[in-house]
Amino acid sequence: MTASLPLVLTMGEPGGIGPDVTLAAWSQRQRLELPPFYCLAAPDVLAARARLLGIDCAIAVVDPGEAVAAFDRSLPVSSLRAPVDVNPGRLDPRNAPAVIEAIARAVGDVRSGVAGAVVTNPIHKKTLYEAGFRHPGHTEFLGTLSAAWTGAAATPVMMLAGPELKAVPVTIHIPLRDVPMVLSTRLIVETARIVAADLKRRFAIAEPRLAFAGLNPHAGEGGSLGGEDEAVVRPAVDALRSEGIAAAGPFSADTMFYPEARRSYDAAVCMYHDQALIPAKTLAFAEAVNVTLGLAFVRTSPDHGTAIDIAGTGKANPASLAAALRLAAELRRNEGGETSEAA
Question: Among 289, 311, 333, where does a domain finish?
Fold first, then answer.
């Protein structure tokens, strides 16, 4: 089905590799089979970075409705209102308003029907915190924007989705020492419900199978290595089964990610950030995509960070951004919304 809505891509941290991978992805749009998108960014920043990188890329300042028509011959850009003054490889909190504006406007564009889904370039959290940003990260901010859209509380859930593994951390951007205090049966159940629902709605998996990692080594070894797995994780798995969700575990995390084990489930639900992200990024660092579940809109992002140290050097790999763009279009199609065909 040919449809008319482009994806909207945010600028991300302008001192990082967001501009680099955006330009590289667009310049390879046919080889990478990218759907049309436009970028919420500062056009002069992108043009300057293209010259620095030696990328032949015309920049077209457009309204979102003009993006699809412009995409074949130029990178469509919708200009940010906040100023951006940046040198690649340098961070400046004064650019934070533009970074935040891009995220909020991207969601607004999907809400108003001019874009099909949101794809975000990486942000630098510490720089935003220094400018007064009050959210732990992208995921939580997007949850707030989704709640404002629907009028109902949103529980955003992070998933790293790659060709061989979909992994979800129940707790996200908190210190490891705080995980046992934050983790609860209720939180695990709530997270898993959202995962199962989005696997059905957006990933087109009719009967999702979820495998749960234990918090402790050997999933607690029957309580001898920690009681949380029997007291907190197992009751969550039992509750989900009673609701008809195919849930299994808790399993020892060190045996969950080899090939035979991965074939037994559609998503791994892990208890903390690195328990999920280490296997996901190890298996597919250049192809994994960060997907936020539980939102009123589709949102994907590359699985890497801002990579300040290589910004402007030409070393940044656009593969994860390309995967994020393709997956965003696929998820939007699966839920029955409009998307644009690949270039």
Answer: 289
